[in-house]
Amino acid sequence: MIIGLKRGTVELVEYKEGWEEAGRECIRLLSSILGEKAVAIEHVGSTAIPVIHAKPIIDIAVGVRSLDKAMECKDVLERNGIIFHGEDNPGQLLFVIGDGDIRTHHIHFVPYNGEAWRNYIIFRAYLRSHPERAKAYDNLKLQLASMYSDNRKVYTASKDSFIKETISEARKMSL
Q1: How far apart are CA 108 and CA 111, in angstroms?
Q2: How many CB atoms within 10 Å of residue 147?
Q3: Alpha carbon distance 137, 32 (integer Å)
Q4: Residues 95, 18: contact at Cβ < 8 Å?
Q5: CB 14 within 8 A of CB 53
Q6: ∠ Cα 6 71 125 (to 5°)
Q7: SS3 letters for 4-64?
Q8: pLDDT (tens digit per residue) in 81-99
Q9: pTM of the predicted model over 0.85
Q10: What CATH code would you report for 5-174?
Q11: Phi-psi category of 11—alpha, beta or left, where left has phi over 0 and alpha has psi -120 to 50?
Q12: Could you tell me which residues come within 8 angstroms of residue 11 by beta carbon, excluding any fewer than 6 positions away?
């Protein structure tokens, strides 16, 4: 199974069975490094949703009590090939695994049970349990990937309203 994609580009591929195991392997590694600093670690993003296309990059969300505590692990993470890339979104720390410009994993540190954590979990769960919504997301992603294959920022931003709408739908159903 091949994972990895050049930084800044967009290429979607059909779901691969090996992505689930790659997610579990990364979670095991992170658990061994972080110990109790990680409250929970989950495989999120499109590689965690079997019915849709995805960039071949494993996304992991690490729920922590505080981002400061997560930064205490920066050196040991980097010694294990998990490189700090800053605050990719307000209140989130991004670490990546990859070789040069090729990224294989994006690891998002977020406050556990904060809004970003809940959004990662509810979005994944909703798409897994609502195949019609997952198909709509897949269609949108394929259309955007054909338009913005060399501009991941625009591709990602263009999905934002769909993601927010889906999270809102999911929250209404869980009330």
Answers
A1: 10
A2: 12
A3: 34
A4: no
A5: yes
A6: 60
A7: CEECCCCCCECCCCHHHHHHHHHHHHHHHHHHHHEEEEEEECHHHCCCCCECCCEEEEEEE
A8: 999 999 988 899 999 999 8
A9: yes
A10: 3.30.460.10
A11: beta
A12: 5, 55, 56, 145, 149
Amino acid in position 106: H
Residue with the two structure tokens 């998990």: 82
Is residue 19 very low, low, confident or very high in pLDDT (cuts 50, 70, 90)?
Answer: very high
User: CA-to-CA distance for 121 and 130, rounded, in angstroms?
Assistant: 14
The encoded tokens of residue 163 equal: 């993601």
**Which pair of tokens denotes residue 105?**
């994993």
As given in the structure block, the two tokens for residue 43 are: 């495989």
Q: Where are the beta strands (DSSP E) in 47-166?
A: 58-64, 83-84, 93-99, 102-111
